[in-house]
Here is the input.
Amino acid sequence: MAGQAILGETVFKSAMAMEAATPTVETLVADHSRMVFRIAYSILRNHHDAEDAAQECFLRAWKHKERLHEVSNTKTWLARIAWTTALDKRRAGRKMLSFNDEESGEELLESFSDGTPAADEQLAIRQRHELLQRLIAGLPEDLGQTLELSTVQELNSAEIAEVMKIPEGSVRTRLFRARKQLKEKLAVLLEGKRHV
Amino acid sequence: MSDQEKDKQMQIDDMLDSLLANYSSAEPRPGLETRILANLRDAEENKSPAGWWNFKWLWAGAVTAAIIVAAVLIGGRHRVAPPTHVIVKTSPAVPQPEIQPHAPAVRNETVRIHPRKSLAPTRPQSAALALNERPAVFPTPTPLSEQEKLLLSYLAGTPREEVIAQSHSDEPPVVGDQDQTEAIPDLMHIPQKLSNTR
Here is the structure.
């Protein structure tokens, strides 16, 4: 009899703990909306589209709210939803710029000069982002996607691996290869600038 | 690798790091959480009525379909079978009514029954009902023919005795001697012993 009471109390406590540990959609929004937005922004490169993707991401999560207690890592689960949502959105509508316009790339490199006026700093930052966006768009898809996720500060290599469903070693390899290719392209751009 | 190349590589590394560092550092517009939560509340509010609405229409459609199927089945069973190609003759065993002088001649009736479109079994009652339809007055009164009218006018204008006389033949039947003898039985040849009058 006493054993049954102890067992019942243990089950009740574990159930209460599970209920307390199970996050709600509201807590997910409060904890991870910023990360979700940044993942979407790293892919879509547009504030409006990134916010739309974030809204859709949480809607998708809300549709599975009954099974939230089954999710072991809600952060990476939500990051994966955000990543796939943004990729779907990019495939559906937006055409990424390709890095074929060498002249335009050289113009953007001008913004790296040391004498950039402070008034033009915002414009320079935007131009740098456009340059990197074009460079990443020229990478193979697997390398580009891994690199885009790595730019989100909230995600480390292990979490990127969980989001992309690949081993962590593959993430590191892809990042190394992506950086190598980007450096080669930047070197070409810098050489061209020096020759001009 | 020369120092110049090392410097160049380091410059490119720094450039790439600075590019990547700020690549996804964008901040969402203020109130993103509020907008997301409001969107989720809208979705939750719109979900139940829409679900109930669809459920209700589903049930309405199912009930309507069931009613239509039931009506078709019941209607098919109770439909009166149209005539078929079967030719039904009046049975000779049925006693014929007495033929009146001015009654129409009774003849064998043939009823042609048209083919029916459905494959439902034929109902012989319908054909029997069609045959049993008889007029209220039997025999059916029909106008007199010319000969009948002449006969009636003759009877009306002729004395009764003459009519009776006209009904007999003018020549009485001729009966010969031989016929008379044959008509009278030969009583003489009756054996006496058979007589029981004694």
User: Anything to note?
Assistant: The longest helix of chain A spans residues 168-195. Confidence is low (pLDDT under 50) at residues 96-104 of chain A. Chain A touches chain B through 37 residues (CB under 8 Å).
